[in-house]
Every structure is written in C-alpha cells, then in structure tokens.
Amino acid sequence: MNMELIAAGLKISALGLGGVFAVLILFYAATKVMLMFSKISAAKQKETARR
User: Is 46 within a domain?
Assistant: First the structure.
C-alpha cells in the first residue's frame, strides 16, 4: 500500500467529518436562537393579552 494515498484518504476523511460536525453545531446554534426568539415573542404576546 502507498502511504501517501492512505494519508490523503485520512485527510479527506477528517475534513469530511469536520464538515459534518460543523453543520451539526450550526444547526444546534440556529435552533437555540430560534427557541430564544420564540420565547421572547410568546412573552410579549402574553403581556399584550393581559392589557
């Protein structure tokens, strides 16, 4: 086996896994931000309903 090919394959695999985890972290952060805005919006609607 050619060690250069193995090294290149491992590098591509690491980049692929890094990309997958980056997208998962981005999705998690986007979900948290949307949840935060949803809670703020619900609190404002509740406040205006009391008036």
Answer: yes
Kindly state whether residue 50 falls inside one of the protein's structural domains.
yes
Tokens of 37: 């805005």
Q: In sequence order, which residues have a C-beta less than 8 Å from that of residue 48 and are 6 or more positions away? A: none
Q: List the domain range (segments joined by +) for residue 24.
A: 20-51
Query: For the chain, how many structural domains are there in total?
Result: 1
Query: For every one of its 51 residues, what pLDDT tens digit does the chain have, with 9 covering 90 and above?
Result: 799 999 999 999 999 999 999 999 999 999 999 999 999 988 888 888 776
Instruction: Write the single-letter amino acid at 40.
Output: I
Q: Is 51 helix (H, G, I), strand (E, B) or coil?
A: coil
